[in-house]
Design goal:
The protein is α/β, with parallel strands linked by helices and about 400 residues long. Helices cover about 40% and strands about 15% of the residues. It folds into three domains: about 30 residues, no CATH class; about 220 residues, P-loop containing nucleotide triphosphate hydrolases (Rossmann fold), CATH 3.40.50.300; about 70 residues, no CATH class. The strands form three sheets. Strands 4-5-6-3-7 form a five-stranded parallel beta sheet, with helices on both faces. Helix 5 crosses helix 6, helix 6 packs across helix 7 and helix 9 packs across helix 11.
Length: about 400
């Protein structure tokens, strides 16, 4: 479960008090930053060729026409949104600036936390762009980086817009907003302002979110001049089989050398969700090919937490059973209904000529206009998620290297 955040190596099984059988163990080698490239990225991106093409097309349009374009990437947890974005950014031309900011689900002062992360990542570029900004904007950005600024909403918006303009005048700029469904309304307003007011500079804003974003902002993307919405649905059976075959070898001999029926069992049980497939493979690698597999992502994670033992398991069960906001699995077709709440075109019922499940279609946001498009897919609900816990402490402050 920590594979995305840490580098580990296996050690001989341990005999622990209270456990009848030896327990598999790993030695922690290093911790990785959230959003860093994952080990399973070594597997090819499967089943997302159309969405990847649309991302490249949006980048090309922004760079060619020197304009700001917005791509909103919607999908349920574990469906592969961040994996698609990582693959996209790795394929960008070398002369491209990429900034990434993640919206936290809890904590104090989280409204502009994604921008603070972007400022922290500027490193040597800050001395080059700071002279191009107004003094008030420099003060506002330094305040965001130190998380103790006193600038108002309009001052911050002007400062962020000036920063993006300065960076994009040097080279095309791609800004990735992760977990935007947790964004504060003020940040959503800021992104909409950026889309409208960034002129004559090549900027691509990539907004990664769960479908709940459209609950917060039903008309999201409707008034943007160059906007796309890519909606990721579950992978098809053949795509899941190929993905499981790629993921199996690194996860242990039990899975790697298992018979085809074992891989088919995982591919069918994952319901088109790559994260679910990975967790199922790890369960089989740890418990053996005959281990029972929980029917949902939530149940599978709960079962893995229960194996922590002792106080850790009790704490995990308390969070799992008593935290408010535990949401059920969305019904089939929930995401398309959310999308129809906005200003996008409502598609007719599927026909025999429609693309198969997993294929994407480009649909104008406003018919007979050039005000953006939506790429539609067939998203089935496969996972649930937990609401944020307000009792947890905030993230640590980013480095204040912008001072001086």
């Amino acid at each position: 479960m920590v594979r995305a955040y840490a580098q580990v190596e296996p050690v001989p099984p341990l005999r622990l008090k209270g456990k009848r059988a030896p327990v598999r163990a790993w030695r922690l080698l290093s911790l990785g930053a959230p959003g860093a490239a994952r080990e399973d990225d070594q597997a090819p991106l499967i089943g997302r060729e159309e969405e990847a093409r649309q991302l490249r097309q949006a980048y090309g349009r922004a760079a060619r026409d020197r304009r700001c374009c917005v791509v909103t990437l919607l999908g349920l947890p574990g469906i592969g949104k961040s994996r698609l974005v990582r693959d996209f950014t790795r394929g960008l031309p070398a002369q491209t600036s990429v900034l990434v900011g993640r919206c936290p689900s809890y904590g104090a002062g989280i409204t502009y936390r994604p921008i603070a992360e972007m400022l922290e990542a500027l490193n040597g570029d800050w001395p080059l762009v700071a002279p191009e900004l107004e003094p008030a904007s420099v003060r506002a950005l330094r305040g965001l980086a130190a998380t103790d600024g006193t600038s108002g909403v309009e001052e911050i918006a002007r400062a962020v817009r000036g920063l993006f303009e300065a960076l994009a005048r040097r080279r095309p700029l791609v800004v990735i907003w992760e977990d935007l469904h947790w964004a504060e309304p003020t940040l959503l307003d800021l992104i909409e302002q950026l889309a409208a007011r960034l002129l004559d500079v090549p900027v691509l804003l990539v907004c990664v979110a769960r479908p709940e974003l459209l609950d917060l902002r039903p008309t999201w993307g409707g008034g943007m001049a160059c906007a796309y919405a890519l909606e990721l649905g579950p992978l098809g059976p053949d795509e899941m089989r190929a993905l499981v075959s790629c993921l199996a070898p690194p996860l242990g001999e039990v899975v790697a050398h298992g018979a085809d029926p074992l891989l088919d069992r995982v591919a069918e049980g994952a319901d088109g969700n790559p994260l679910f497939a990975e967790l199922m493979l790890e369960t089989l690698a740890e418990e053996g090919a005959g281990a029972p597999l929980p029917p949902t992502v939530q149940a599978l994670i709960a079962a893995r937490l229960d194996r922590l033992g002792g106080r850790g398991a009790r704490r995990a069960r308390t969070c799992r059973d008593h935290r408010p906001g535990l949401r059920p699995r969305p019904p089939h077709g929930a995401a398309p209904r959310l999308l129809r709440r906005g200003r996008g075109t409502v598609e007719p019922a599927a026909t025999a000529d429609d693309p198969p499940r997993g294929a994407a279609r480009l649909v104008p946001v406003h018919p007979n206009s050039d005000q953006g498009h939506r790429v539609r897919d067939d998203p089935q609900g496969t996972a649930s998620h937990l609401a944020p816990d307000p009792r947890r402490p905030p993230h640590p402050s980013p480095a204040t290297h912008l001072h001086g």
